[in-house]
């Protein structure tokens, strides 16, 4: 899979891209990341990429000319792949969207900066807009890295366990169950006996119940859209959950 990333600060990507899973993915030829500095397409001697907003107001707005020129120079006109603008105004990134993006062989990520980008970029260049949360960052570089990693983990052969993405938190609509490793006892805290039992059916049942418990405690809103069996509902009811009456984390005991 190929990512083309357009940013005013492409140098911030290198260290993270050359570590851990992303480094492995590139070595396996499963991932290509090409970084482009938008300033290289600015047409004046000062490489200006922003200006004051029409109508007044604080902050600066990224100009359309260098952004259109950058993307069309690299990707063609119109761009040959989806163009995702990283912005707090975009749709919220979820694991479902990560799976959706992983179906594309090529994606372009446009990192906003300053107050915003000129609206003509949103209307006539970007084909999608994504946010990684209901908060504001100084730019789209960190969100771009988040998307690259979230999508890369889903590519075949990247992770050691090919089933891992299907078991991650949010992949099934629930948070993931707790994990333990050696030693079986640490500072008097033992791991649950069921994990040492060798009974795989009971281990699977325990993991499902703990996933439900953790979701109810930390993200009860997810239960609304999760696929729940009768056994799931019966277990949740023992914890005080009533379908149709979401419990907020603050009310959990």
TrEMBL record:
Keyword field contains Signal: no
Q: Which CDD domains match?
A: TrmD-like (cd18080)
Q: Which GO terms describe its biological process?
A: tRNA N1-guanine methylation
Q: Which residues bind S-adenosyl-L-methionine?
A: 112, 132-137
Determine if Methyltransferase is one of this entry's keywords: yes
Binding partners and assembly: Homodimer.
UniProt name for this protein: tRNA (guanine-N(1)-)-methyltransferase
Originating organism: Candidatus Brevifilum fermentans
Q: Name the lineage.
A: Bacteria, Bacillati, Chloroflexota, Anaerolineae, Anaerolineales
């Amino acid at each position: 899979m190929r990512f083309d990333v357009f940013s005013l600060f492409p140098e911030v990507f290198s260290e993270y891209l050359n570590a851990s899973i992303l480094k492995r993915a590139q070595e396996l030829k499963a991932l290509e990341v090409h970084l482009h500095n938008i300033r290289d397409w600015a047409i004046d001697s000062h490489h200006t990429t922003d200006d004051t907003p029409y109508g007044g107001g604080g902050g600066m707005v990224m100009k359309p000319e260098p952004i259109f020129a950058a993307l069309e120079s690299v990707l063609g006109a119109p761009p040959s792949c989806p163009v995702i603008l990283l912005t707090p105004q975009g749709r919220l990134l979820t694991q479902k969207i990560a799976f959706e993006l992983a179906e594309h062989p090529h994606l372009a990520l446009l990192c906003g900066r300053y107050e915003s980008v000129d609206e003509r970029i949103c209307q006539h260049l970007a084909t999608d807009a994504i946010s990684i949360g209901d908060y504001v960052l100084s730019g789209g570089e960190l969100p771009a890295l988040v998307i690259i990693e979230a999508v890369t983990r889903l590519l075949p052969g990247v992770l050691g366990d090919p089933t891992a993405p299907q078991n991650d938190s949010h992949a099934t609509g629930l948070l993931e169950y707790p994990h333990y490793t050696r030693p079986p006892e640490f500072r008097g805290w033992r791991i649950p006996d069921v994990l040492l039992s060798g009974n795989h059916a009971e281990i699977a049942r325990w993991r499902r119940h703990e996933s439900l418990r953790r979701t109810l405690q930390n993200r009860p809103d997810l239960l609304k859209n999760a696929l729940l069996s009768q056994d799931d509902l019966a277990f949740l009811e023992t914890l005080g959950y009533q379908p149709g009456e979401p419990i907020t984390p603050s009310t959990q005991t």
